[in-house]
Amino acid sequence: MPEKITILDTTLRDGAQTPGVSFSVEDKLALVGTLDALGVDIIEAGHPASNPKDAAFFRKAGALTLGHARLAAFGATRRKDKTAAEDEQLAALLAAETPVAVVFGKARLSDVRAVLGCTSAENLAMIEETAAFLKAHGREVVFDAEHFFDGYREDAAYALEALRAALRGGAASLALCDTSGGGSPDEVYDTVRATARAVDAPLGIHCHNDGGMAAANTILAVKAGARQAQGTLVGLGERCGNAALTTVIPHLQLKLGFACLPDLTALTHAARRAAEIANLPLPEQMPYVGAGAFAHKAGMHIDGVLKKPDTFEHIDPAAVGNRRRLLTSEVGGRMGLLGLMRALDPTLDKDSPALADALRRLKDKEHEGYQYEGAEGSLALLLRRALGRYRPFFELIHFKTIGEQTQGAPATAVVKIRVGDRQEVTAAEGEGPVHALDRALRRALEVFYPQLGGVRLIDYKVRVLEAGDATAARVRVLLTSTDGRDVWTTTGVSADIIQASFQALVDSMEYRLTEDK
Do 199 and 247 fall into the same domain? Predict the structure, then answer.
């Protein structure tokens, strides 16, 4: 049996400190569901004493029925001038009624003196008494040793004493924290290995990414003896973020043979769902789960990966629930298109008339200003046309937008479509004309295709094609959409930005319906 690595996700707590991210209570509940379905072991859900929102979350979380994960509340050791029983934030930890309590305490001696303003012995007592208090109330205690690596470098004996104090109090595991994120893999490995020899207890690792090493540091810590990996699913967190579990977990499970998740194929979907809840785009080049993680552009690379996938793919994309993408471009050429078209018709070869027709169509559209690299939705529709396999799901009869000049007033869009012998006219408001068009088109189509109700726009980019033409220039629009599981991009070109946007919107809906057949 593979050795188990406990996964603790702190997206709801540490990830909530990401600039621009603000989780509502409902967002946090949705994230819990996503992480639980993924198979995460412990979900660090927030600091109940820090703000009313977290307190409200824990009140609602008590009604949740989780299939795998256990919730953890987060807090600090008791204050220096109070007993554990008198400390209000420890009372809030208990009131959260989670089975696990994660508490942090100082492991760097200089912090004890400069930040807490107490003696080294007082800090150790605070750690021990906090752990004992929480354990006595039935909590499993995870002790986060703040600034452990800095503290170990400064005074190793004291950093280890902080861990032993938590153990004396009854902590179940000890997380070694690279709080400032400046650790390097060799130092982390050596320190964790030495700590595992000095302290007889389960060790965890919690790394920030300020030096760009968080995932590597986490993996090396596990190799050195840590058996709990902490991080945020897609790397969210204060400053430069935390270790991205989407990078850590597949490396540990697929390459080192540890057991982390029951079903790794759910990873990409969970990552995209978490990014959607955070209202942030998932970086295309994010390892393992990004839309570009297995994207190939160069003709030689495409030819190689089609013949022997491991020439340019370090794992099978399906192992993490992702997929290969073959991009068409000036360096991709005929083989890139052939690889894509064979997914629709395996009998095609490089001499097939349909391939020549697709290349002609692509050249003509690129001359108009279209670019299909990264717009796989629109490209798929173009290839279906070349193969004679395209059928429209609806006919656009008319659309218009109405913009108000009053500050703060929403834009309005009206869309008229035909499906078979039925027509539908729908109006919608939105934050700007493109948002209004998106809502109006989907509202009209949902009458005929209810499955489009889960589709939403997550990114919108505009590029001016002829800068010298100023406001009369043609523009290229790229729209990225998701249905919560898949992500796709479509494109439109016009001198009218609204027209270009609507072309991309229509393609987005057509692509989703085509793939749903």
Answer: yes
pLDDT classification of 330: cutoffs 50, 70, 90: very low
Q: Note if 269 is an active site residue.
A: no
Residues near 34 by beta carbon (within 8 Å), at least 6 away in sequence: 270, 273, 274, 277
Nearest to 372 by CA among 343, 318, 333: 333
- Annotated active-site residue in 147, 301, 367, 435: 301
128 shares a domain with 16: yes
Q: Decide if 262 is inside a domain.
A: yes
Angle at 9 between CA 7 and CA 12, to 5 degrees: 165
* pLDDT > 90? residue 150: yes
Where does a domain end: 221, 244, 278? 278
As a whole number of angstroms, the distance between CA 29 and CA 23 comes to 10
Q: Can you give the pLDDT at residue 180?
A: 96
Contacts of 51 (CB under 8 A, 6+ apart): none
Give just the sign of the alpha carbon dihedral 264, 269, 272, 275: negative
Kindly state whether residues 131 and 243 are assigned to the same domain.
Answer: yes
Q: Which of 248, 278, 308 is the last residue of a domain?
A: 278
In this structure, are 185 and 263 located in the same domain? yes
Q: Among 162-171, 179-188, 223-232, 321-330, which is the least confidently predicted range? A: 321-330
Q: What is the pLDDT of residue 142?
A: 98
Beta strands in 33-166 (DSSP E): 42-44, 70-76, 100-106, 140-146
Asked if 400 and 377 sit in the same domain, the reply is no
Q: Which residues make beta-bridge pairs with 478?
A: 461, 491
Burial 85-102 (b: 16+ CB within 10 A, else e): eebebbebbbebebebbb
Percent of the chain with pLDDT over 90: 66
Task: Verify that 366 and 422 share a domain, yes or no.
Answer: no
Q: What six digits make up the tokens of 201?
A: 């207890």
What's the mean pLDDT in 190-205? 98
The pair of structure tokens assigned to 168 is 């004396």
Owning domain of residue 107: 6-278
The dihedral sign for the CA sequence 289, 503, 279, 40: negative
If asked whether residues 313 and 219 sit together in one domain, one would say no
Average pLDDT, the chain: 91
Backbone region of residue 257 per phi and psi (left: phi > 0; alpha: psi in -120 to 50; beta: other values): left
Residues 356, 417, single domain; the answer is no
pLDDT over 50 (residue 331)? no
pLDDT tens profile 82-135: 999 999 999 999 999 999 999 999 999 999 999 999 999 999 999 999 999 999
